[in-house]
Design brief:
Blueprint: H1 7-17, E1 43-47, E2 50-53, E3 58-61, H2 64-67, H3 76-87, H4 97-109, E4 115-119, H5 122-137, E5 141-145, H6 152-155, H7 166-169, E6 172-174, H8 180-189, E7 194-199, H9 211-221, E8 225-230, H10 242-246, E9 252-255, E10 266-270, H11 272-275, H12 291-306, H13 309-330, E11 337-342, E12 345-350, H14 358-371, E13 374-375, E14 379-381, H15 388-410, H16 414-417
Parallel strand pairs: 3-13, 5-6, 5-7, 7-8, 8-9
Antiparallel strand pairs: 1-2, 2-3, 4-10, 9-10, 11-12, 12-14
Helix pairs in contact: 3-12, 4-12, 13-15, 14-15
Length: 432
């Protein structure tokens, strides 16, 4: 390996650490997630499925702006729409008509949507949904499954809870996906106190045994608000999101990430009788109606609704999952790897084997994938721009790396393969 491959990235990191905590605005993009010395740390541009780092190295990107780039980097239709909008201004003293256009489109395509409010990121929308639920029900407690952003009510029940008052932590309660009894126990412990149940309708695995319908029934019985966090699943799984795919309609839902192809935009949508209470709570932002992101969203939503984008995305993802499963069997690494999830957002799981730390295995995976020109962090976040050749290159890389990992694990010599110290996980945000 050329030791200077990431020279400029590492030089830029040293500058960044003096003025930016962790050298990044986002934990998931920081050195906590990427092993220093074998990773590209800063990206300068992207086109389609490809990105280039500050050292000029080219990569196929399977992270895709943390799943926010649905069409591909620099999509021409999005770029043209945004450029045209920018020429006329992006933020005004009164609402712009494009706010109505995009809101009407979301109401048209999302089953639960009767009214819409915009934010700029997923946490905006999920936190607004919790405040709205508390106002509507006049209750304080919430049941939570998975990760829903950085605000106190959500992050306070993880290991990253520094700075969150215990009184706030005590109002949030964790349940587990596909474990309906874990949710029932919360309602039993806090009768008539649960304002809302919030969960991703799907992440690593599909719902089992009518799980989502049971959640719906429980919230109906207890007069609690059901919130689907569709920040990732919305615009990927089906035209109307996972609620459309699984035919379970929540009271509220939050959308973000891919709906504007990487431009900062989120939305809380839901039933009119609940959303009208937005008039009685404070959820407001100077840039919530900013028009460049809404212009991008108009293009994305049109393509989701009127092209084969989602069908093609699912087809590519199914082939990728099949090929990865074939390689897992071929190289006899079932005890190390597995793959699950929706075809458009699949997870490569790394298991702990004997005395080998799974993070050591992940570090080795990242080290070898980056060296082969592939950006990866544990999930395959597909975009419309990913080609068959891109998927072939990933499979060819796995075909080399899987037996390497097997040898390193079974001979207990993984440290000999690593050129850097293993990364350390922040916290686990999703469970099977």
């Amino acid at each position: 390996m050329n030791e200077s491959r990431y020279l400029n990235s590492e030089k830029l990191l040293r500058r960044a650490l003096k003025v930016i905590p962790l050298g990044s605005q986002t934990f998931s993009k920081s050195i906590t997630q990427y092993p220093l010395g074998v990773s590209p740390l800063y990206i300068t541009r992207g086109v389609g499925s490809r990105v280039w780092d500050v050292d000029g190295n080219q990569y196929i990107d399977f992270v895709n702006g943390l799943a926010s780039v649905l069409l591909g980097y620099g999509d021409k239709d999005v770029t043209q729409a945004v450029q045209k909008q920018i020429e006329g201004g992006v933020n005004f003293s009164l609402p712009h008509p494009i706010e109505v256009d995009v809101a009407e489109k979301l109401v048209e395509i999302i089953p639960c949507a009767e009214m819409v409010r915009f934010g700029k990121n997923g946490t905006d929308a999920t936190s607004a949904s919790i405040r709205l639920s508390r106002a509507y029900t006049n209750r304080d407690h919430v049941a939570i499954c998975g990760y829903h952003g950085w605000q106190d009510w959500s992050i306070g029940i993880t290991s990253m809870n520094s700075g969150v008052p215990k009184s706030v932590q005590d109002l949030s309660h964790t349940f587990f996906y596909n474990d309906i009894n874990s949710l029932k126990s919360i309602f039993q412990k806090y009768p008539d106190q649960i304002a809302a149940v919030i969960l991703e309708p799907m992440n690593t695995v599909y719902p089992e045994n009518e799980f989502l319908k049971e959640v719906r029934d429980i919230t109906n019985f207890h007069n609690s608000i059901l919130i689907f966090d569709e920040t990732i699943t919305g615009g990927r799984y089906s035209i109307g999101g996972a609620q459309d795919l699984f035919d379970v309609t929540p009271d509220l839902a939050t959308f973000g990430k891919g709906i504007a192809n990487g431009f900062p935009l989120s939305a809380i949508v839901g039933k009119r009788k609940i959303m009208r209470h937005m008039e009685n709570i404070f959820f407001s932002g100077t840039f919530s109606g900013e028009t460049s992101a809404l212009a991008a969203a108009k293009v994305v939503l049109d393509k989701i609704q009127n092209t084969s984008l989602l069908i093609d995305l699912e087809s590519k993802g199914k082939r990728l999952i099949q090929d990865v499963k074939m390689l897992i069997n071929k190289h006899r690494v079932e005890h190390i790897f597995s793959i699950s999830g929706h075809p458009s957002w699949s997870f490569l799981h790394i298991k702990g084997v004997k005395s080998v730390n799974p993070m050591s295995i992940k570090t080795l995976m990242l080290q070898e994938l980056f060296a082969r020109g592939i950006i990866f962090i544990g999930t395959h976040n597909l975009s419309a721009a990913h080609s068959e050749e891109d998927l072939k290159q990933l499979i060819l890389a796995y075909d080399i790396i899987f037996p390497m990992v097997r040898e390193a694990v079974e001979s207990n010599t993984i440290n000999d393969y690593l050129r850097v110290e293993p990364i350390t996980p922040l916290f686990q945000v999703r469970n099977k």
